Amino acid sequence: MTPNTTKGVLLAMTTAFLWGFLAIALKVASTMVDSYTIVWFRFTIAFLALFSFFLFRKRGMLRILIKPPFILVVAALALGWNYLGFMQGVSYTSPGNAQVIIQLGPVLLALAGIIVYKEKLSKRQIIGFIVASVGFLLFYRQQLITMLGREADFNTGVLWIVSGAFAWSIYAVFQKKLVQTHHAQAMNMFIYGLPALLFMPAANFRHLATLTPGWWILLIFLAANTLIAYGTLGAAFKYIEANKISIIVAMNPIITFITMAILSEQHVSWIPPENISPQGYLAAILVLTGAVLVVKRKRIKD
Q: Which of 21, 51, 112, 253 has the most CB atoms less than 10 A away?
């Protein structure tokens, strides 16, 4: 493995670990702060960080805030809903459940690529769609059985996550088109800024003022996660193929499962244990395998 390949793998793994820990941190935060306030805070900090950078380094990039393309507005609204949907899903269900169901997003993106961009559907992708679909259905069925007495909460959470996955696929489709003509980080600045503005009326500022330093550290981690995870992901593309990155990043639910298993074994009081059956874990593996097969592209030979 060359130094550049090693660097690319480490960067992609950083993204996978950050996203793997994200669902757990969101679940903990949801016990103290409401979903709308958390989502607003994450977008606001991410926007302010990029805005400050461009203000002092590349002021010309700020023009996108004045006259954004229409599809950039749609992409921003979609990502805003994705954040809220995932946040609500974690709150109603669990980190592991949310991480498995949100894998619907990349699958939908691949489907959108076939429909919108007329990308060719390979045999591997067809198998991936079938495996992922079977996995999703089995996972939902198994989790519904284990959630005795909490079926309503589970179904509500699933609906939130599925809507978030659909929203993410819409965001990604437009992002793929926009990145060809616009600066990626300038677009991100707008994409973070619009939801921050829209979620502001729903944010509970009085409650934020009463939080202890420990809760503030958690919120700052959630906000930093947005910037760092996407930053390391973008950097990874400079060193290794998108195929390898997709596979590494798609493994982030496994990080969530392992971390939750360790926390459950330690009997921590600040997060409820995962309630996933062995059959549920098997279904989750099917979902992840199917998702990897769907997003993985053929390597182009020189």
A: 253
